[in-house]
């Protein structure tokens, strides 16, 4: 997989970028290779950020954290990382990302509580989606205190 590297340059008041599409340095959005993909992706990313700051998402996030007992489900299972009970820096992960399927953004079976470390692993594909879907189907088990 190729990594995208963006280099920023400032020329007066303008911010220039090394374009990953054409290889030329120009102002953002001035690429001569225009197929609409970048504009759609930028628009979609903005919509995702607005969604993540919404009260609707915050309520859903809390519900998923409560369902998962405020524990990292991947650490708790111990298959992809050394078994641990982690509740530090918890995040709610969309197993199928919003940009791939917006209809699943609030589906309980597409959301799982994981720590920041495991979130990076999941985003890179080092923790398979099928495995995460399997964890969602079963309640967390291990040594934790019920409230």
TrEMBL record:
Membrane-spanning segments: none
GO cellular component: a single term: cytosol
Family: Belongs to the HNH nuclease family.
Organism the protein comes from: Phascolarctobacterium faecium
Protein name: Putative HNH nuclease YajD
Keyword Nuclease: yes
Any one GO molecular-function label of the UniProt entry: endonuclease activity
Pfam families linked to this entry: HNH
PANTHER family: HNH NUCLEASE YAJD-RELATED
Record key words, sorted: Endonuclease, Hydrolase, Nuclease
């Amino acid at each position: 997989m190729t990594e995208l590297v963006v280099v920023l340059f400032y020329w007066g008041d303008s911010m220039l970028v090394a374009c990953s599409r054409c290889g030329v340095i120009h102002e953002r959005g001035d690429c001569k290779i225009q197929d609409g993909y970048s504009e759609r992706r930028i628009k979609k990313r903005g919509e995702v950020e607005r969604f993540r700051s919404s009260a609707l998402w915050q309520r859903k996030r809390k519900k998923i954290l409560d369902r998962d007992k405020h524990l990292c489900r991947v650490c708790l299972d111990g298959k992809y990382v050394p078994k641990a009970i982690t509740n530090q820096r918890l995040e709610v992960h969309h197993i199928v990302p919003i940009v791939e399927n917006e209809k699943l953004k609030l589906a309980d079976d597409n959301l799982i509580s994981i720590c920041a470390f495991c979130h990076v692993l999941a985003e890179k594909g080092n923790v398979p989606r099928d495995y995460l879907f399997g964890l969602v189907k079963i309640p967390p088990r291990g040594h934790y205190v019920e409230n």
